[in-house]
UniProtKB/TrEMBL annotation:
Keyword tags: Calcium, Coiled coil, Cytoplasm, DNA-binding, Golgi apparatus, Guanine-nucleotide releasing factor, Membrane, Metal-binding, Phosphoprotein, Repeat, Secreted, Signal
Signal peptide: 1-23
Protein topology in the membrane: Peripheral membrane protein
UniProt keyword annotation of Nucleus present: no
Region (Disordered): 445-468
Location in or out of the cell: Cytoplasm; Golgi apparatus; Membrane; Secreted
GO MF annotation: an example: DNA binding
Record GO cellular component, one term: extracellular exosome
Name of the featured protein: Nucleobindin 2
Source species of the chain: Callorhinchus milii
PANTHER family xrefs: NUCLEOBINDIN, NUCLEOBINDIN-2
Pfam family, one: NUCB1_N
Family: Belongs to the nucleobindin family.
Amino acid sequence: MRWKRPTPLHCWLLIGLLVAAEAVPIDKIKPIDVEMPAQETMEPHDTGLYYDRYLREVIDVLETDKHFRKKLQTADIEEIKAGKLSKELNLVSHMVRSKLDELKRQEVARLRMLIKAKMDVHQGKDIKIDHHALLKQFDHLNHQNPHSFESEDLEMLIKTATSDLENYDRDRHEEFKQYEMLKEHERREYLKTLDDVRRKEEEMRFEEMKKKHRDHPKVHHPGSKDQLKEVWEETDGLDPEDFDPKTFFKLHDSNGDKFLDEQELEALFTKELEKIYDPNNEEDDMVEMEEERLRMREHVMNEVDINKDRLISLEEFLKASEKRDFTDPENWETLDQQDLYSESELRQFESRLAKQQDELNMKSHNLMKQHQELQSQHNQLQVQKHELYQAMQQMEQKKQGQKGPKIELKFHPVKQDSTPPEDVNSPIPMKAKALDNVHNLIQDRAHDPVQDLYPATTGAPRHDEPLH
Ligand SMILES: [Ca+2]
Ligand SMILES: [Ca+2]
């Protein structure tokens, strides 16, 4: 199991990036006191939402409208979330509206294709689909009106994307918990297959692994001065004595948008995570490492992001660096010190798993039955085919039997000196024999012209007999 690289940014973060890009030219935001890494483009990261492309395209098109762009620059996040920006849609140019209509029609068509594909998989082809009813499940556009993009569509898009992204981390935690429970379930099932001695050995080995995993250097509290100084020194290669929060912020704002976003923040924890996790160690699970990274990022965002836009501004960062917690933080409890699930949660999980297994077994049984029925039908068809072939062969032989003599005649021409076949009982050469006789008779007559005057049957007088 592998985690998808976390990329949850708010749709208003995308809008925010556009605002920031407009407000401050990129070349003016480079810090002057340190050498900066190459600036990336201002392209926002993939949000990970299934309608990410639609969301981006809508924002791109809106951004081409002067009036709307101006409103974007002056609106704050709360206003955007409250839907105030959506009302401005009525004032954008006709061309922009037409482009948005087209985008919406494309999105509806895409959703319809998704529905169709899903139905084909679950219920087989040729099922009549009620697209109108099924489109209700999508909240990022108004399905009642599939042809035009209205202010309601923009409002729904912003609200849904905001809500989906806020739930993104929660869903990832839940997915991780299920992963851990599955691991434990499989371990316990494996133990059941062992005898007492081997089970004890295996349990001892498991405890040793856990102990080995927990034995790692001290992890600094995420976002604390010690943690950031370690990055400053080991990753950036700078003198710890020169540590300066403002310079640190500018150094790690990789895309130069004047904010530390979630990805830029998560990159700061790699050094800490490497203390706990090594991909070469059997006892270190790299899926757990990504969960730990997520926990660290969430913790720092909660502490530092005052306006809750999921972005850390320089102002917020500097304010946090003045707090007492920055220099004197509590100990950070790593994932291996947490209870990830209770026994009762594990039992519930196992019972769900057993139910799913039963359903799968039932499906597999039905498929096997269908396969056997098809095999039997196939065999019956093969037998019928063979019988039909035999019947055709018999008919052909019969036909050949009736037409046989003509074939014999064709390939056995009568010769002058030919003699009748010895086997007179053979049915096929009979006609040939008769013809031979006729031929001989003609030959005889050729030597006796008198025979020509009298039919052979009446008995013509012999030439040595006297004529009357
Ligand atoms: Ca940034
Ligand atoms: Ca913020």
